[in-house]
Design brief:
Structural class: alpha/beta
Strand order of the largest sheet: 4-5-8-6-7
CATH superfamily of the largest domain: Protein tyrosine phosphatase superfamily
Distance between the termini: 92 Å
Number of strands: 8
CATH class of the largest domain: Alpha Beta
Strand content: 15-25%
CATH topology of the largest domain: Protein-Tyrosine Phosphatase, Chain A
Largest sheet: 5 strands, mixed
Radius of gyration: 26 Å
Number of helices: 7
Number of domains: 2
Length: 201
């Protein structure tokens, strides 16, 4: 008996089994191999091809005594806002529910490297300063509280306290470790540092 014949004979003794396969596009497929016949059937609807974290991000990162940073999950939680004495919410690119006795400012900001985030600085900084001057507390957020809102808060610290980009970035990251401004925002903030230095001379 040849080797090939021996292999084929042993194959007939193998138990039938089904294999569940998750494809790169998130589909779950049931694969069967019976005799010389292979079948593949989708058994569930398509899901994202990555793991989705559905847990709410409820961190209220205290950057200064009156300035806080986080995700939209916080902005949607009235009890959490009240608990942290937030009097005003600044929403960057993500409109949220307005709650009684809590002011809200919406500013359209796209999380794209080519978006000129510096063009919203004056508007946002003015709101922050107005709230702080009235002894209020400001919560700044975007969707995840990682890029847009972090960039604006970094810019605010740079302008208000005459900090360099790296120092302001580290100050914010120390309070909210997940921040990650997109590469375009980082470039713009470094250019903003030069502008602040020129104005300060």
């Amino acid at each position: 008996m040849s080797l090939l014949e021996q292999i084929n004979k042993q194959k007939t003794k193998l138990s039938h089994t089904e294999t569940m396969v998750k494809t790169a596009d998130g589909k779950t497929v049931c694969e069967n191999f019976v005799g010389n016949t292979f079948t593949s059937n989708q058994v569930s609807v398509s899901h994202a091809g990555y793991v989705v974290d559905l847990k709410p991000d409820l961190q209220v990162a205290k950057i200064t005594e009156n300035l806080f940073l986080g995700s939209q999950d916080v902005a949607l939680d009235q009890n959490l806002l009240v608990l942290n004495n937030i009097t005003h919410v600044i929403s960057l690119g993500i409109p949220v529910t307005h709650f009684p006795n809590i002011g809200c400012t919406y500013v359209n900001v796209l999380d794209l490297p080519e978006f000129d985030i510096r063009r919203v600085f004056d508007e946002v900084f003015e709101v922050i300063n107005e709230v702080i001057d009235k002894k209020g507390k400001v919560f700044v957020h975007c969707n995840a509280g990682v890029s847009r809102s972090a960039s604006v808060v970094i810019g605010y610290l740079m302008r208000t306290f005459r900090l360099g980009f790296e120092e302001a970035y580290e100050m914010v990251k120390a309070q909210r470790s997940c921040i990650r401004p997109n590469e375009g925002f980082v470039r713009q903030l470094k250019e903003y540092e030069k502008l602040i230095n020129i104005e300060g001379e």
